[in-house]
Specification:
23 helices, three-stranded antiparallel beta sheet, about 575 residues, alpha+beta, globular
Amino acid sequence: MFTQLEDLCRRLVRNHYGPIVEKVVALLIEEGRLSLGRIISQTGMEGASARQALAVLIQHSHVTHAQGKEGARMMTFYSINLRNILRLQRAGLYLALAEERMGAMGLSVFRTIMTNGCMSVSGVRDVLGYKKFGTADKQKFSVAVAKLVRERFITAITATDTVTKVDRFMQAEAKEIEKLTTAPTPKELVNIRRRISDKDDEEYTSNVVVGMKRQMTDIGTGGAPKVMIGPNGQPIVIGNGFEAGQQDQDADEDLVDDKQCFQIYHERLDVFLRNKRIVNYFAEKYNDEASVVLKAILRLTEPRTKTCKDKVSESIAAQQIVQNISSDAQLDQAVDMSGDPYFKENGTDSGSSSAARKATLGKMAFALLDVLRRDASGIINKVDERGAGQYRVNFERAAIVLRDECLDSLVLNKFSSTHVRVVRTLRDKQKLDEKLVSQAAMLPLARSRELLHELTLAGFADTVEIPRTTDRNPSRMVYLWYVSPQKQVSAALRGALQGISNIMQRADQETLARAALVAKSQRADVVAGTTHLTPGEQASLQVLGKLKQQIDVCVIRLDTMLLLLHDMVPGSTAL
């Protein structure tokens, strides 16, 4: 664990929940798993305060708990979830996603759950004042909640969600061992653990949405229109028995269980942020039209992609990709097809009919798909040649490409473009001596040696020693330079975490310097307008507001670096 991570998590908790909760978090970070008694004794807090602090942290999924023996007694041990604490600074990006995909009502529901932590649908209704809603707003609320659950912006709380994965596996293993009449052999233990792992993988790949219940409804009997949520998360309004109900009198309606509690599904939201980064990468590399096609591909992969741990997506038919491209997408000038004899003969139709428009859109979409799959990054792969082909997204390769791009931009900002050239040379060639580095990077030997030492001190390059003799005399050794992605990521993460902590500290100091003015501006008479601020005080508050906006932008940029370097990498461990 980085020391910068501990300081940043404590600062985030203090800003969001206050100093009492921060004291509990600091102890759990430093000591690890602790029981309630040890938390009370080591923090010196009252029992009620410690319990309330833990309740707040569990409510917001920052702390997990598990039961275990301590001597002859069964105790409950609490452990911290640092990854979820770091996601507190990503709240603005999550809210922007919810507004973009769910609308105003969906944003209100999402913000309520994010602010209050784990909540039931009935609790959200009480907070938003559901009883005062009109008929249209009530219908929008039901659709928004169902869509949030269906697209997994929020997920239902189960009994295992507050327990760590290691504790779940240990409990499952203990239950399996209890079923045996004798002590398990090593082979039996391996089989037990394999079955537990397979069961966990099966639950992960399941498409069942917890928190939704199915209800048979009679569509053909008339009455008020019904709102159903389709498999793609889009609302389907069926009314009065004279649409689809004419052919099928009964249909399954997805309803959200009002008694079920929900929480924010952070891992799923990171998937959406990762997909946006992939789309932006191809938009910058090619054009906006290529990003439209890629966005259609990623939208089709989202229903079966729950977290960033998936390395590749399922295969998608090219025809399905073309059908999911918006009909108003402007792809006419996306690719120059003048050299294609087939396109010359059957080129764009100048007619204004929708069929001609669809034909042109399909031709350009297939051309863009071919461009994307031939891209050197290897993110889009063609896995089947039958028909128009089957395509797959390699998320693991996308994480590597975006990681390297982020590291190169970091080296460019910290040093120069010449340093970036050296890093890319070592990344492509691997393990070169100084002469080969200077030749490949087209630099003088003295200059390349200087750049390599600067990169090594910053953690972006490393050396390996190859002795020529058994005495390992330094004068008779060969030194090869190379780049280690793990060491580069560690150096970048330390800098990003320290940068976020410093920026937040600057915001606290600026607010503290104007504490009296801020307190005055929040008084009831000032807010009501009965007491006015002087022009100097108003100017000072405007300066503080602009400074906080700049600080928020800097924090989001550094947090995006954390997303690219760590959170979106399949198989990434805790920081």
